[in-house]
Input
Amino acid sequence: MLKSVIEWTWVLAIFGVAALIGNWFGMDVLPWEAIPGMLVLIAVSLVGLMLEKALPFSMPAVGYIGILAIIISLPWFPGSDYVVAWTSQIGILALATPILAYAGISVGSNWADFRKLGFRSFLVAIAVFLGTFIGSALIAEVILRWQGII
Amino acid sequence: MEKVELGTVIKDWRLHAIAFILVAITEAIGQFSISVGPGVILLLPMLYAFFLGLGLYFTPLISEKNAKNAEPLIILGVTLLIAKIGVTIGPQIEAIIAAGPALLLQELGNLGTIFLALPLAVLLGFRRESIGMTHSIAREPNVGLIVNKFGFSSPEGRGVMAVYIFGTVFGAVFLGLISGLLATATPLHPLSFAMASGVGSGSMMAAASGSLIGAYPELEEQIVAFAGASNLLSLSTGLYFSIFIGLPLTEKLYSIMMRRSERKAAKGGGPHA
Output
């Protein structure tokens, strides 16, 4: 467990550096201004990863992480003002860019499989993604309008 | 994830240096928008980063080993993304609860996949593959479900793998492109698309909602909160949704379509492809 925690911390820290670089170049937030927020996010991720290993439920780490992050940022949670203020220094796109950079590099090794799929599979896959996206948006639109939220 | 040793991943400085440079360059370039009819296609740094990264794989700069080592960075990077989304949801909890009915019901929108893609798959000549392909967006839990039920080398297994591979390679990029375009070109509200962005994959949600934020920066907080809440919901209920609704419905529709085309074939003669 301890070995895993140290390794996770390293990987999260490396990723964090990439995100801070992106945040700096893309959103003009100086890295040291964003460090407290990044440390909060890393801590939340670490706790979630540890809970996944330690608890007997079959919930993936991201499930724990999402819930934990929501709880510590709720208005009535002590210190949530700091959590929200610090993490607001990190743009969501600054986290998305390094994910997709690493994803692009990693996907190269799936490229051979991808080329084997053929054009018909490609068309069906596009319809699959389009279908769920548009289906969900249409239902959300109807209900949100009906509730008067939008 | 356990396939690669995290220790060696950490020490792969070549990979990290390249990723840092990619991020710095792409973020410095910034975003562009292209008008397409009434809508806008947003080109975001994350898209350049993806394609530059993919391009580098085919140069000597990135080896097969570097590419394998990139995988845990994606998985752990997504945990940071989920944490960031969580802390954006907390302060917005009242708005989320108010939008609860829409959040819950839009999960049913995932059935849109079956109605749109299954007929197309059958029309294109797929048989039982189409069940694996179109019962869901084929993320890991769904691959697990299909493989568990039909086996990996079954037609259904091949189908789910095809969509899985497409999603892995192009899912985020594709959703990023169409979400900005659809939100600007259709009369639907960006917040409806924000909820639709939560398809159950962190990177796909980030790309789809990222484009929405690029197009509607003034709605950033709400977009992230709605997309994130919807994504958490999809992650936690998606598999059960597939087990009890999505997959049975796909199989039912498939058998109805097959019966009809058999009857047609019997009437009109002539073999059916």
Q: What stands out?
A: Chain B has a mean pLDDT of 90. Residues 73-263 of chain B form one domain.
